[in-house]
């Protein structure tokens, strides 16, 4: 008699579950309590495509890692992380901070979400330098902010499509891109794509600027 699926998957599932709970603590362990939110519905609200996509943890976890991989192909965006982040020594900490920002700007009350955005803007003010080719960069550069946002939103959406048990409604993808650009624009991004068609056009335009470098390889090895 075949073993139930639960028994077959348990050896792999339980270690993953323990790692996830340790890496991304829930309310009882010091994390935010998204199961019992308080205050106003924030920047998006419960009927938004953003709440739906960002609530799917497997898709978000896979999409988040995919986004970090994709972002490592932009030399100037990668230079800022390389020069000003301790990701090589604390990758989990970086993932946790990114998760807290995305979760907070998605589900927290508006004032709290706006405070998170302002905090990141202030941090970005101090992130400046030069890429490997000598070109200057600054984290508050609208073009770099747009790149980071689009690559992240695209990967979150693809993660949902691949791993969620529930299909997106037909128009949800365009609504999602149109909604989440609010966060990017609040951070200072300009010309943020607002639909799947615009995102596809954006990737075609920016492709010549991307490169797989030795730094990209280091990031990929860490991930």
Helix count? 10
Portion in strands: under 5%
For the residues shown, what is the average pLDDT? 89
Spatial separation of the terminal alpha carbons: 39 Å
What spatial order of strands do you see in the largest sheet? 1-2
> Helix coverage percent of residues?
55-70%
What's the number of structural domains? 1
Count of DSSP E strands? 2
User: Per the principal axes of the C-alpha atoms, what is the gross shape?
Assistant: globular
The poorly predicted ranges are: none
Category from helices, strands and their pairing: mainly alpha
Largest sheet: 2 strands, antiparallel
Over the alpha carbons, how many angstroms does the gyration radius reach? Answer: 18 Å
Question: SSE order, as H and E?
Answer: HHHHHHEEHHHH
């Amino acid at each position: 008699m075949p073993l139930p699926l639960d028994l077959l998957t348990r050896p792999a599932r339980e270690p993953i579950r323990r790692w996830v709970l340790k890496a991304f603590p829930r309310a009882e362990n010091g994390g935010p309590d998204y199961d019992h939110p308080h205050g106003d519905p924030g920047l998006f609200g419960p009927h938004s495509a953003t709440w739906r996509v960002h609530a799917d943890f497997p898709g978000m976890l896979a999409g988040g890692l995919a986004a970090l991989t994709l972002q490592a192909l932009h030399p100037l965006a990668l230079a800022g992380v390389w020069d000003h982040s301790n990701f090589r020594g604390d990758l989990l900490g970086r993932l946790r901070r990114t998760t807290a920002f995305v979760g907070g700007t998605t589900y927290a009350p508006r004032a709290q979400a706006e405070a998170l955005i302002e905090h990141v803007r202030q941090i970005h003010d101090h992130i400046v330098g030069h890429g490997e080719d000598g070109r200057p960069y600054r984290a508050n550069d609208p073009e770099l902010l747009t790149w980071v946002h689009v690559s992240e939103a695209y990967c979150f959406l693809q993660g949902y499509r691949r791993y969620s048990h529930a299909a997106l409604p037909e128009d949800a993808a365009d609504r999602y891109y149109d909604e989440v650009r609010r966060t990017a624009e609040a951070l200072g991004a300009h010309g943020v794509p607002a639909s799947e068609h615009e995102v596809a056009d954006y990737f075609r335009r920016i492709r010549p600027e991307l490169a797989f470098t030795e730094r990209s390889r280091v990031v990929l090895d860490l991930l």
